[in-house]
Amino acid sequence: MRRMLGVAAILGVMPGLAVVVRLARSPAPPVVAKEESLTVEVTAARVQPMPVLLQSVGQVVSQHTVQIRPQVSGMLKEMFFKEGQLVLKGQRLFQIEPAPFETALSSARSVAENAKSNADRLDAIAKKGYVTQQDYRNARALADQAQSAYQQAQINLAYTDLRAPIGGRTGSVAVKSGNIVSPSDSSQLVVINEMQPILVQFNIPQQFLSRVRQYQARPGISVSVTDDKEIGKLDQGTLVFIDNAVNANTGTVTLKAQMPNDHEQLWPGQYVTVSMQLTIEPNAIVVPQIAIQTGQDGNYVYLVEQGKAEVRRVTVDRQMGDLAVLSAGLSGNERVILKVPRDMRVGVKVTPAADVSPPAEIRLPTS
Question: What pLDDT does 230 receive?
Answer without folding.
Answer: 62
